[in-house]
Amino acid sequence: MADLTASAPASSTDTFLAEAGALLGPRGLTRDADLITPWLTDWRGRYTGAALALASPASTAEVADLVRLCARHCVPIVPQGGNSGMSGGATPDESGRAILLSLRRMQAIGPVDATARQVTCEAGVVLQNLHSAAEAAGLRFPLTLGGKGSATVGGLISTNAGGTQVLRHGVMRALVLGIEAVLPDGSVYSALTPLKKDNRGFDLKQLFIGSEGTLGIVTGATLKLEPALADRVVLWAGVPTIHAARELLLHSESMAGDLLEGFEVMPQACLEAVLEYLPDARPPLGQSHGWHALIELGADAAQAESLRERAEALLASAFEAGLVEDAAISSSEAQAEAFWALRDAVAPAERAKGPAMQHDVSVPVAAMPDFVAAAVPAIEAEFPGTQALGFGHLGDGNIHFHVLAPQGAVRGEWEASVGKAISARVHDMVTQWHGSISAEHGIGQMKRDELARLGDPVALGLLGTVKAALDPQGLMNPGKLLARAPRNA
Predict the structure, then answer these.
(1) Are 338 and 415 contained in the same domain?
(2) Disulfide: which of 115, 266, 370, 435 matches 363 by Cβ 3.0-4.6 Å?
(3) Listed residue (96, 87, 106) closest to 43, CA to CA
(4) Is the domain of 186 the same as that of 266?
(5) pTM
(6) Which secondary structure element, helix H or strand E, spans residue 334, and what is its range?
(7) How far apart are CA 76 and CA 100, in angstroms?
(8) Closest CA to 171 of 452, 441, 430
(9) Per the structure, how many domains does the chain have?
(10) Where in the sequence is the domain holding 166, given as residue range(s)?
(11) Mean pLDDT, to the nearest integer, of 358-370?
């Protein structure tokens, strides 16, 4: 492993490691390359760094003690949950100066409070395990995503994760009732007890939601739960254009109300890529359509009896209004899962086709159809041979805008050259449409420089001021989110 820094002598590094080892014990601190290496590359494989050691504290108290030790020795800290992020936000740089701090040993889930519909848990709890704990109590945690088997609560909070149920339940920010976090000086901010009304100044927990570990380390949270779904129905509809899909969304919201759990869209090209990628998959409809909409309705026990009737009424009225060309309705849970499997396979199917630039962006919800209709031909004309595709969460304005490379493009080389120019152009367009270059994946290191280039100067100044105030040494996840070090560092 590399030395701490050129300005920090080996004796200083050795002293720090000895103190950290004494604090955390052999399970809590390792420099074994075989154990550390798998966690030094991000999920997408775009960034690989180095670390002084891997720290795995078992409690908030140990995290706080370690942070105080790091502050005293000026050792940077890179927090990491399940390492399933999409923007390189949990990967250290190549210097080897930082401690990689894993929260994966902190997996405690407190008793589920079925009356208050909430649960308190530690940051290392895996999303799928949280789902299971809630389900055992007849409730559910209404956020899900493809990486639920590895994503942790701390990571979800730190990136303000979204998913496929945002339309009804909101992003992670809406589901966090209370929070516990270790600050850069090692003090612990504890606000796990939720209050419906609390006017004692700023809502401080919001500082840590979406801050990507740059202001402190989330160690625990109290989360909102919802009644378990007693039944669900998934519809697959073929429509001619994304504008027609938008009209179908508005119709579905009017007809289904709060039964509407999700509304996803994809163009025909995405479906064809998935069917090629999944040899056992079958197209839901008999004919091709310009666009496809996946609509999920869910009901708790009180509304389950009438759910299918309402779903059929929604579909019948959509046909009568000329909003759909063809449609299918799930007849079983297995068929509902099969519909969702097609949607979930879009990203891996495109990766299998070759290099691509993948953009997680958002625009105002009402403007999304116009944006996609304008951006697709503009990018394909400006970068000949590419194929631009937009798919995702139509109901919340979050479009996953992917640009596939021309045939014969070399993976790695194309992304670093033409691909980089494509991303800059896409981000320019999103900004012109008053949107965001990061809808749900965070900024990390992948979009840090683009945020600095395109972000509102006043907003960036405020972010920098908060960072400098809370982390004057600049030790918390350096190089992520903000392009510049705190002014007091």
Answers:
(1) no
(2) 435
(3) 87
(4) no
(5) 0.90
(6) helix 333-344
(7) 9
(8) 441
(9) 4
(10) 118-227
(11) 93
Q: Are residues 300 and 375 in the same domain?
A: no
Tell me if 488 is assigned to some domain: no
CATH number, domain containing residue 207? 3.30.465.10
- Other C-beta atoms lying within 10 Å of the C-beta of residue 300: 17
C-alpha 404/C-alpha 352 separation (Å) is: 11
- CB-CB neighbours of 108 under 10 Å: 14
Whether residue 371 contacts residue 363, with contact meaning beta carbons closer than 8 Å, is answered with yes
Q: CATH no. for residue 396?
A: 3.30.70.2740
The DSSP bridge pattern shows strands 99-102 and 53-55 to be parallel
Dist. CA 53–CA 101, nearest whole Å: 9
Report the candidate in 301, 288, 188 with the shortest Cα–Cα distance to residue 238: 288
User: At 99, is the secondary structure helix, strand, or coil?
Assistant: strand
Return the CATH number at 322: 3.30.70.2190
Task: Supply 143's token pair.
Answer: 């956020």
Which tens digits make up the pLDDT trace of 28-54?
Answer: 999 999 999 999 999 888 899 999 999
pLDDT tens digits along 72-115: 999 999 999 999 998 999 999 999 999 999 999 999 999 999 99
Q: Are 60 and 180 spatial neighbours (Cβ–Cβ below 8 Å)? A: yes
63 and 128: one domain?
no
Distance CA 438, CA 431 (A): 11
